[in-house]
Design a protein that fits this description.
single chain, about 475 residues, alpha+beta, Thrombin, subunit H, Pdz3 Domain, 6-stranded antiparallel β-barrel, 11 helices, 26 strands, about 35% strand
Length: about 475
């Protein structure tokens, strides 16, 4: 998996698979001989003009947080029952934890984008400009689903250098790119490479796994830095690397600028990022699925669930359709579909292409925010039952999106579990969906409360955790 390129060196192991034998390529004409440089200008080709334009808009981001550690003796339950939370001895100790990353100025008024993992849980954020001026930064928005954060610094009447966002859909494999950041804290550094791949949907550190891959050297400290094209525009924000040692081996990943644009646009006003809701989910079409459906090649997303009354349903999409394009952009897998929908603006209509019984059809899908229907009705569960101590809520499209759940789940979801409670001893966890109690399906919080108020000799409880359904019997 990719690892975030944060302040510490992180290492992973890569498993290398044997490559299948390749067919012998057909003979091709010999390429024409390359011409030698004919002038001094041709010999002195340089990225310097691009760097002069872009580098002043790349900043260093320093964060600081206070980590409190409790005296181990005072953590013992025996002492806590006498003293509560007021320790008579062994006061909690504090230590300062610092981290370093990079950021990009994307507005002349001091709006900066960086990675969520760079500023996560920080108490103080400080930004150092390329000209060495320092500013305290305010966190405007942090979006863990995309691993992006928006900061703001107050520079008074000054107009800061900034980078324009390029349309990342215009990139092609082989395009030259530059990575600018502060690797290992050595100072602003520029590396060059090419776009190695596009729409890379391998497992990553974000919910929206749709990366630009580059071989430009990216190292710890480059997180949040700029990946720019030779026109000096921002193509992506560097976020992760594949590595054995924590250093660059030429496989780096950047969040495309089109996703950055979506987060930054909302970041100017603050608040949580709200993305369009398709109201349908599906699975990537594999070679096996393609063969069973008579397709010439694996492509698209096979729709296996449509939310009744949602945008996809109202547009006419049905279970069994294969989504192949969104707004003219190819959709190769489920991650690509999520990315394409997430980067579109709310309030408009998107054209979605899909195959139905071998015929290509188009659907006009309204781009709306996920609705909070039914209302969440967050309720702490009490009484003598195995779920006491859990706070639950009605699951809605809005709450599912907020919690990063996939699929069209309905029912009652666990929001919080109180330490030491019966629900905690049952190992119930945030994000669990309560499916059944004593073989009765659970559709709403009020229904669950009613069932738990009944006396039972044994409690039979089923919950969904991720893609698994867990069942347990608890003696009454």
């Amino acid at each position: 998996m990719p690892v975030p390129i944060g302040p510490r060196i992180l290492a992973i192991s890569l498993i290398l698979a044997a490559a299948p034998a390749l067919a012998q390529p057909a003979a091709t004409p010999a390429p024409a001989p390359r011409a030698l440089p004919q002038s001094r200008e041709q010999v002195q080709l340089s990225f310097a003009p691009v760097v002069r334009k872009a580098a002043p808009a790349v900043v260093n981001v320093f964060t600081r947080r206070v980590v409190r550690t409790q005296n181990l003796l005072f953590n013992d339950p025996f002492f806590r029952q006498f003293f509560g939370d007021a320790a008579p001895f062994g006061q909690p100790s504090e230590r300062i934890q610092n981290s370093l990353g990079s950021g990009v100025i994307v507005g002349p008024d001091g709006l900066i984008v960086t990675n969520h993992h760079v500023i996560k849980d920080s108490d103080e954020i400080r930004v150092v400009l390329a000209d060495r001026r320092e500013f305290d930064a305010a966190l405007v928005r942090s979006d863990d689903k995309t691993d992006l954060a928006v900061l703001k610094i107050n520079v008074g009447a000054d107009v800061l250098p900034y980078l324009e966002l390029r349309d990342s859909d215009d990139l092609e494999v082989g395009d030259l790119v530059l990575a600018i950041g502060n690797p290992f804290g050595v100072g602003q550094t520029v590396t060059s490479g090419i776009v190695s791949a596009l729409a890379r949907t391998t497992g990553g550190i974000t919910d929206y796994r749709f990366f630009i891959q580059t071989d430009a050297a990216i190292n710890p400290g480059n997180s949040g830095g700029a990946l720019i094209t030779l026109d000096g525009k921002l193509a992506g924000v560097n976020t992760a690397i594949f590595s054995r040692s924590g250093g660059s081996i030429g496989i780096g990943f950047a969040i495309p600028s089109n996703m950055v644009r979506t987060v930054v646009a909302g970041g100017a006003s603050g608040g949580r990022v709200v993305r369009p809701w398709l109201g349908a989910s599906g699975q990537s079409v594999t070679a096996e699925i393609a063969g069973s459906l008579g397709l010439s090649r694996p492509q698209g997303v096979l729709v296996n669930e449509v939310y009744a009354g949602g945008p996809a349903d109202r547009a006419g999409l049905r279970v069994g359709d294969i989504v192949t394009q969104v707004e003219g952009h190819e959709v190769d897998d489920a991650e690509a579909l999520r990315f394409r929908i997430a980067t579109l603006p709310l309030g408009r209509t998107a054209t979605v292409s899909a195959l139905r019984q071998g015929r290509d059809r188009q659907f006009a899908v309204a781009l709306i925010a996920p609705p909070e229907t039914p209302p969440r009705d967050a309720t702490p569960l009490r009484g003598s039952n195995p779920l006491a101590g859990a706070t639950v809520a009605n699951l809605s499209p809005a709450l599912a999106d907020e919690m990063g759940l996939e699929g069209q789940l309905r029912g009652v979801i666990v929001l919080e579990v109180r330490q030491g409670s019966p629900a905690n001893r049952l190992r119930l966890a945030r994000g669990d969906v309560v499916l059944k109690v004593n073989d009765r399906d659970i559709a709403a919080v009020k229904q669950l409360e009613g069932l738990l108020s009944e006396r039972a000799g044994n409690w039979r409880i089923s919950v969904r955790r991720g893609r698994e359904v867990l069942s347990v019997v608890v003696s009454g």
